[in-house]
Specification:
The protein is α/β, with parallel strands linked by helices. Helices cover about 30% and strands about 35% of the residues. The strands form 3 sheets. Strands 1, 4, 5, 6, 7, 8, 9 and 10 form an 8-stranded mixed sheet that branches.
C-alpha cells in the first residue's frame, strides 16, 4: 500500500529536489511552498481512489449530473513541521475537518529518545476518512504513536499517511505496528537512517527549515 509519488518523474520530483538542495533551503518560503505543493499532489492522487456519488447540479442552462466525494476527510498533522504539507492538502480538500497533534522526540543523555505527545485537538473520527501528514517518516515512531493516540477511543473508516520523504525502515515500522493496509503516500523514499535516526540523504530538519531553529528542551 506504499505509493511512491516520485517513482515516475513529474513536477513533484523537481519540488522534492529543491527541498533537499542546501542552496535552495535558505529560502524558507520556497521550502514551505514545495511541501505545500507535495501535499496538493498527494491529495489529488488520493482523491482518485475515494468514494464518489452523483448529485444534480443546477447550471444557468440546465441540470448536470455531477460526480462528487461521498465523504469529506479529516486532515490530521503533527505540529509544527507538518503544517505546510497539511495546508497543501487543505487547499484541495477544502471542506475537510482538521486535527492537530504535538508529537516530538524527547532525547535522553544516552542518545536514545521517546515520543512525547502533549497536545491533541481533534474532531470525531468515527467512521471518517482520516489522513495523517508529517514531512519526514524516519523511524516511524512519531507517526505510530500519533495514530495510536488519535484512534485510541475512535474508529476511522479509512486511514492514510502522507509524507514528503520516507525511509524504508520507517515504512517497515509503520506496517509492522499498524498493518500493511494503510496507504502511505510518499514524495520520495530513501534507503537509510544515520546514528541519530535521521533520514540519509534526506533533507535535514523540516521544521527548522520551514520555520527557523528552536531551543531544545
Amino acid at each position: 500500500m506504499v505509493h511512491h509519488l516520485s517513482e515516475k518523474h513529474s513536477l513533484l520530483s523537481n519540488w522534492v529536489a529543491e527541498l533537499r538542495d542546501v542552496n535552495v533551503q535558505n529560502d524558507r518560503m520556497r521550502f514551505r511552498r514545495n511541501l505545500e505543493r507535495i501535499g496538493e499532489v498527494a491529495a489529488y492522487e488520493m482523491s482518485k481512489l475515494m468514494s464518489t456519488k452523483t448529485i444534480p447540479t443546477t447550471t444557468p442552462l440546465g441540470i448536470h449530473q455531477s460526480k462528487v466525494l461521498v465523504d469529506q476527510p479529516v486532515l490530521a498533522t503533527i505540529l509544527r513541521a507538518g503544517l505546510p504539507l497539511h495546508q497543501g492538502m487543505l487547499n484541495y480538500f477544502d471542506k475537510a475537518d482538521n486535527a492537530f497533534i504535538s508529537a516530538y522526540r524527547k532525547h535522553h543523555a544516552d542518545g536514545s529518545f521517546e515520543i512525547s505527545i502533549e497536545y491533541l485537538s481533534c474532531p470525531d473520527l468515527n467512521n471518517r476518512v482520516v489522513i495523517v501528514s508529517d514531512p519526514m517518516l524516519a523511524t516511524g515512531a512519531s507517526l505510530v504513536e500519533t495514530i495510536k493516540t488519535i484512534t485510541k477511543n475512535q474508529t476511522p473508516k479509512e486511514l492514510h499517511i502522507v509524507v514528503a520523504i520516507a525511509s524504508k525502515k520507517g515504512i517497515e515500522t509503520v506496517e509492522a505496528a499498524l498493518g500493511k493496509n494503510i496507504p502511505i503516500w510518499c514524495g520520495d523514499i530513501d534507503d537509510t537512517l544515520n546514528d541519530h535516526s535521521y533520514i540519509i540523504p534526506g533533507l535535514g530538519d523540516a521544521g527548522d527549515l520551514a520555520y527557523g531553529t528552536k531551543v531544545q528542551s
